[in-house]
Write a structure and sequence with these properties.
By secondary structure, this protein is mainly β. The protein is 11% helix and 30% strand.
Length: 97
Amino acid sequence: MKITVEFSGGAELLFNNKKSHDVDLPDKDTNWTIANLLLWIKDNLLQERPELFLQDNSVRPGILVLVNDTDWELLGCLDYKIEPRDKIIFISTLHGG
């Protein structure tokens, strides 16, 4: 299943400074959910410091997740069933100072 995953607001620094990733998720017997996707991202895209992106099987507080420009909280968060051609964006709202 082909989807697009994007990182911004500084989150892209954890992914070799690449903002957009065209991803072809492998076929599996069950539906892909964002929970599954986060594990896949950790194993396949994340380059460094996973603790800055993930916490307790979810994204860290301060990372906004959008699915097709809609807040994932309106779609079921980790349980959202990913559809072909979905665009999933992770935006860090945390800034150093």
